[in-house]
Amino acid sequence: MQPPQNLNLDPSSSYQPALVAKHFDEFGIREWERLTQTPSDEVSLAIHTHYLKQYISHGDLVLEIGAGAGRFTQVLADLGTKIVVADISSGQLELNKRLATEYGFESSVEDWQQIDICDLSGFETGVFDVVVAYGGVFSYVLDRRDLALQESLRVLKPDGMLFLSVMSLWGTAHRYLDGVLALPPAINQKITESGDISPTTFPARQGNFMHLFRADELRQWLEQSGARIVKLSASNCLSLLWEQKLEQIKQNREKWHELLRMEIEACADAGCLNMGTHIIAVARKA
Ligand SMILES: C[S@@+](CC[C@H](N)C(=O)[O-])C[C@H]1O[C@@H](n2cnc3c(N)ncnc32)[C@H](O)[C@@H]1O
């Protein structure tokens, strides 16, 4: 495994890569379980997977950055792609390798590399058909997200596809309203104004920092970078707060499929984009 490229602390930036790496090292196997623990998690997994299946072709060369323990590495392998798995956390990379062997998809992985999305200098320009950055990587890099986006687009071939999901500002408030209202209003107002849960807006925060996006902000940010947006979607909106009912719905195959069908349609509706915990974007390099 390669050594980390740029884990140095930069005091001028709110993004502290070493802290992010430590957080996910400690998060361990919970990262693999994150999208299968509850029916609502499974809805999220289904929506994210839907877009990979819709647009990715057999044989594509994929950079999966922020791959974590490999939930989507497995999906990408099932789609017949060749994958370079990258993550800032050595612990997550070890898990990804172990689970790839355990679940038999390691032959689809060309390499596992410890890399920060803000520095993809180890890759030539225009080499990947697809970059996948699901699960908030662009949120975790805070004020370095422009650089992360430039790098992700640089390594794509012309017309190559970028799949990302970021934390949603209003969707997170929707899902965790109790916790949000437990914050002192002055802190909460700084977070909603800036979208940042950072050392500046919330210095006492126990846990990792992140930027939460509004859907319009995400759209403008991608368009300004020169990317062409193919699809925006929330994840999830309809079923987010129906956890107990979802257990029952899941027992009924027909209802569960109908729920997933409606979620996929509703989540892509402009009126719902801000209402899930995450916002998914599919974009092409212009
Ligand atoms: C919430 S997990 C998502 C994992 C997987 N993509 C998924 O959606 O299930 C976020 C992952 O991004 C990685 N990550 C965070 N910041 C990163 C960065 N700057 N560069 C590369 N990976 C990063 C973390 O180590 C973690 O494994």
General description of the model:
This protein is of the alpha/beta class. The chain contains 13 helices and nine strands. It has one domain (17-285): Vaccinia Virus protein VP39 (Rossmann fold, 3-Layer(aba) Sandwich), CATH 3.40.50.150. It has a seven-stranded mixed β-sheet, with helices on both faces. Strands 6-7 form a two-stranded antiparallel sheet. Helix 5 links the parallel strand 2 (82-87) and strand 3 (109-114). The protein is globular and about 45 Å long. The relative contact order is 0.15. Bound molecules: S-adenosylmethionine (SAM). S-adenosylmethionine is lined by residues 17, 20, 24, 31, 34-35, 65-68, 71-72, 87-89, 92, 116-118, 134-137, 140-141.
Order of helices and strands: HHHEHEHEEHHEHHHEEHEHHE
> Could you tell me how far the N terminus lies from the C terminus, measured between alpha carbons in angstroms?
33 Å
CATH architectural group: 3-Layer(aba) Sandwich
Number of domains: 1
CATH topology: Rossmann fold
Unreliably modeled segments:
1-8
The count of DSSP E runs of length 2 or more, i.e. the number of strands, is 9
Q: How much helix is in the residues?
A: 40-55%
The number of helical runs is 13
- The CATH homologous superfamily corresponds to Vaccinia Virus protein VP39
**Rg value:** 18 Å
Q: Structural class, judged by helices and strands?
A: alpha/beta
Overall 3D form: globular
**Which band does the percent of strand residues land in?**
15-25%
